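All the exercises in this workshop are built on plain-text protein records. A learned vocabulary of local backbone shapes supplies the integers on the structure line. Once this layout is familiar, the rest of the handout is easier to follow. An example says more than a description, so a record of this kind follows:
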Amino acid sequence: MSSQTPGQSDASTAQEAVPAWQPPRVRDRGRKSPQVEQALADVRRKIHPRSVKGLFNNWRVTMVIVTQLIFYGLPWLQWNGRQAVLFDLVERKFYLFGMVLWPQDVIYLTVLLVLSAFSLFLFTAIAGRLFCGYACPQTVYTEIFMWVERRIEGDRVARIRLDEEPMSFRKFRIKATKHIIWIAIAWWTGSTFIGYFAPIRELGMDLINFELGPWQWFWMVFYSFATWGNAGFLRESVCKYMCPYARFQSVMVDQDTFVVTYDHVRGEPRGGRSRRIDHKEAGMGDCVDCTLCVQVCPTGIDIRDGLQYMCIGCGACVDVCNQVMDKMGYEQGLIRYTSGNAIEERLTQSQARRRVLRPRVIAYTIILASVAIALAVSMLTRTTLRMDVIRDRGVLGREVAGGLIENVYRLQVMNTAELPLTLHLNVDGAQGMVIETIDTNRDTVDVGPAANQPVPVVVRVPVGSLVPGLHDISITADGKMPDGREVSVSETTRFYVPE
């Protein structure tokens, strides 16, 4: 029987039936819905991933070692007496082994970004968030910090108990030791990152002597703090809530993309059981519902609920599930890298792999290969000599002694090679026209390696050779490198003849 009193309006009942898609009523706006409460609880909940061993864990460890050897070691590599990789923002030069790039070479940076984007599209179409699980800096440094945490605080259960117990000298000592090591790693990482933009050997000495500039101190502290905060505290929150790639990856995967997948056809219905029973006769699937796949997941998801954007494709659940299958005497691969169509159509791995080569993948591959070939050809054939010609607007054409008309120019000569160069200057535009430098009164100029050198010059022509007005002329600089290569560059400008 209804508890509503006679004569009571049904307004309250109607209000309770307001559809969920409508905005909250004024009197309810201070409340949080169960979904919001659950979302906030998930954000606040600290995840304690369980350690795991296996094939994919070995791959993750290998990628951590390889990426960090490259990152920490590359700035110390020398090339022709200088740092092999250096993005010198002060001098506005980018050194990449034997190549020197200038601000005018920004097109190469643009093409590299395009290549990176299409590479990401291609890898995602083939294998989902493979980059996130093995090579993303957030994943790599989280793995390093978690390894330190496990070595100091213990595995999952020990860490949970330590976090739940009240503060004591023992807990403070353990936590302080962990954070000291974390900060040391973060500081080393931040210092190394700055070493890509300032000579790292000089940077190291300045750091030891406390002679860094204010901006160097700022960026070093900033990147160190960012590493400590992201890898030590935010961890999976970066992958789940901050990374934009997690949001738009769904438009790049399809049912033929290889991702970490739970075989629900084989695994359901799940449930605990004894190893002595025949689970198939009992009407049970292969999943024993041990939840170890959830315990080892660095983002805390249950892969059995299907593909989720929070999954970074690290394969930890694959390793631990294979171990459980071995203990139960079942076939491995209940959780494995495969495609959605392979699960639904019961395809073998070889059959599923053959479907990887589909129109989307072919298109990405063709575009990627075309851009990469064009970039390689452009960089291999690029000239190492550049020159800009600027006419001195403060000194117009004038008549000088000897019956000559002269104009003054400034040549901005850029030698992008790492070898010194002697250039011979020529001018073409009228009979008897000559060029020479103002400083040396010669038609040759010496340019140092990887140098951007201003050269003031004058161009003279006999009076009467040209009618009054502006005339197009061409200034050429050519020379031979010490290794025998010939270089030449030509620029046009205007020559003014006064009336």
